[in-house]
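S.,

Sequence below, as promised.
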Amino acid sequence: EGDELIVSATPRDANYFFRKTGLFKHPLKSAMIIGGGTIGFYLARRLTDVGIKTKIIEADEERCALLNDEIPKAIIINGDGTDERLLLREGLGGVGAFAALTGIDEENVLLSLFANRVSHARTITKLRRLNYTEIMNNNISVDHAVFPSLLTADYIVKYARSMLSISGGNVENAFDILDKRAVAIEFFVTGEGPVTGHAISSLKLKKDIIICSITRNERLIIPTGREDIRVGDNVLILSMHSDFKDIKDILA
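The prediction came back faster than expected:
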């Protein structure tokens, strides 16, 4: 009790793990997304990849055609996402999650408030203006507010950290986790070396290092110890230390 647990898994396997362990008391089964822009596109694709029934309501007919081609598992509705009657007709009352992702902040807030009133869905509200932060935190009853500009800034900071503090090697990304008590680092293996061609279980790693995943030819591998690291792999590690410039630095 009180432990913090980090799980490394594919999205589908992670979903299965949480369901089997009972950590999801009310697992998400369906979602409705208003707005089929970039955020809505990637959110829908991720949700459908793990088996969640997803419906997108988008006003632009050409965008709907693209979404239908790119996310065949999702249901795409060409319509006005601010039309309350349309939302109810498309099943808003029974969905588990609702994301208001239009380009207008006020519409997103009102849509999420409406969803809270007519359903038990967990709501996600996209906001462009940062001056809404305090209002959303204190006065308006929505579950989650997403500020794309803050997410972009956070990505830039993480990218700069990987380029500046761990520059000169084959580090692709680096970011802090667990309140900066640990770091996750992604390496791209550019050539043969002491870590390649050997079973992971045979490698003598430094203390407090875990190899979490290997991405090879767009296939995610969760290592069991029998796998080896190869040229062209992306390797994700967790560590209590951040002084890495090359993947060989994980060795004792």
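Confidence is low (pLDDT under 50) at residues 164-168.

Coffee later?
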